[in-house]
Every structure is written in C-alpha cells, then in structure tokens.
Amino acid sequence: MILVTGATGFLGAELVKQLAEQGLAVRCTRRSNSATPQTLLPYSHLITWVEADICDIFALENAMEGVTQVYHCAAWVSFKQADKDPMISTNVNGTANVVNACIDAGARLVHVSSIAAVGTAKTGELITEKHFIEETPVNNIYAISKLESEMEVWRGIAEGLDAVVVNPSVIIGASAGTDGSGQIFETIRKGISFYSGGAMGFVDVADVARCMIALMNTNITAERYILNSENWYYKDLFTTIATRFGIKPPSREAKPWLLELAWRGAALVGKLTGKDPSLDKISAQSGSQVLNYDNSKIKQAIGIEFKPLSKTIDEVVGALKG
C-alpha cells in the first residue's frame, strides 16, 4: 500500500493523480476541513482518504497500517514571523513522526524538502546537492522548518530508514491557480512596472511528481536530489509571462534598496490593514540573488528530461485566462 501525506496540496494532488493513472491504489491523509481536489475525483475508486494530522502520532500509526511506500508532501508554508513557532513545530515534529512511523513499519520514504534547505554556491557556480546551509537562516522561517525537517529524515536514515530526499526549486503548474507560485502569474497579470535583478530555478509540478515516483521505484537510498527544470532571470520570466498575457512587460529594475523600501512599506500597510503584506522581507531579499541550480544528478539517476519552462508558462497562463 502507498501512503501520501499532504495529498490535498498542489504537489500532493498531482502525485496522487499520477499514481492513480498507473492503476495504483493510494491511501491519502488529509485534515478534517480539507476538500478533495477536483483533479482527483475521477480516481475516487483508487483513493482512500483518512483523516490524519501528521502531528497526531496515533492517527498516523493507523494510517500506516499495511503501508510499504510513503510520499511525505505535507508541510505548512508561511513566511510570516507570527507563524514561526507553530510552523516549525508542525513541519519538524510532523516529519519526525512520519520518519518514526516509516521505521516502525519498514516502509520506504520519499521526503519532499526544498531548495530553501540547500546552501548557496560561489558566484558563477551552479548550486548542487553538496551545498549545505552553513548558517541557520534566522529570518527565513520557512527555510528553517524545511532544513530541520530534512534533518529528521537524515536522522532516520542513520537509524536504518530507507529514504530519499528531493529538493524542488520553485514549483509551477496550471493546477496552482492563483495560490502559491500562481501568485507570481496573477501579480504580473494585474500589471507591474518593475522586475528584480535576481535569478531562480523553476520546475513543473508534473515533473516533480514524476521524479518522486521514479525514485521510489529505484534501489537508491540515503541521497538528496535537486529537482529543477531551468534557471531563469526574473526579468526574462516576468517578460515572458506578461507577453503571454498580452500585456506590457515590466521595464524597470527594482534595485536592492528599492526592494528594501518596498517590503518595509508593505509591512506597514499590513499592520494598518490587518492583511498579509504584498511583499515580505525574504522575498524582497531573494529577488536580488542569482541562484542557479544543477539538475544533473537527478538526470543521471532516473534519465528524466524536464518539460521546457516556456511550455509550463503557456499552460499556466492559459488556465488563468480561462
């Protein structure tokens, strides 16, 4: 039996869809207030839903009955300082529970970490799986939670767990809608004048799921893999998205000092209105960083050819246009 945590999320739903398309029965965890993704309704005969919070050890143990493979996608994603303690507690303790349950059941685990848990390289070099964060990213609470969660998996591996870790770059796809990475597209669609000078890696959600399934079905263990299709400068990304929407692309670069003013201004507005700020400190700072990721290790391991990012952009824009 296969168990997928976080199956109602963006990546989790795509993963379950691909497993079901192969005719595989899948058990999926969800919280009591989570709705079944529309994309999974056609596969209801293959999917068993169980209400199990990963922080509930007893519910998780029940969900693990008869399970031999676990895909751990569940995670709380936030960049708000107010969410720091509960998010780290949920992500880290929840992952520890999943790891322990896998060890007890003798199940193989594919854990979804993040490039936020990968270190940086010297200027001009590609970032690889060998780069580790040297200093705890105090201000980036999401990175802290993913780093410490990944450490729980490595702890489990040291205790005999059969596991592989994947570190996806920014995951995009039509099924995101306007949430998560979909906010990038929606923001550009509404019209923006500035672009930031940094660069980042991006990958299609379907490719991430494909990599996870392929890795699960290998004998590879105790390895981490960066999942990244292409590295794009934000200027090129914003221009391409705007062009696809048929609107004027941003023409002015937002220098670091301007991004600094922008996130501080957004934070002030957020405090006055009670709404989440439109730009946070971490996003503003990362917007000026050039972070290029190497995908050669995963290609060598499973022979995957990633979908061109331009094709994914077309699909996302097409979905948002309706």
TrEMBL record:
Residues of the signal peptide: none
Coiled coil start-end: none
GO MF assignments: oxidoreductase activity, acting on the CH-OH group of donors, NAD or NADP as acceptor
UniProt entry tagged with the keyword DNA repair: no
Stored InterPro entries: Epimerase_deHydtase (IPR001509), NAD(P)-bd_dom_sf (IPR036291), NAD(P)_dehydrat-like (IPR050425)
Species the sequence originates in: Mucilaginibacter agri
Record family assignment: Belongs to the NAD(P)-dependent epimerase/dehydratase family. Dihydroflavonol-4-reductase subfamily.
Protein known as: SDR family NAD(P)-dependent oxidoreductase
Annotated ranges, domain NAD-dependent epimerase/dehydratase: 2-218
Keywords: Oxidoreductase
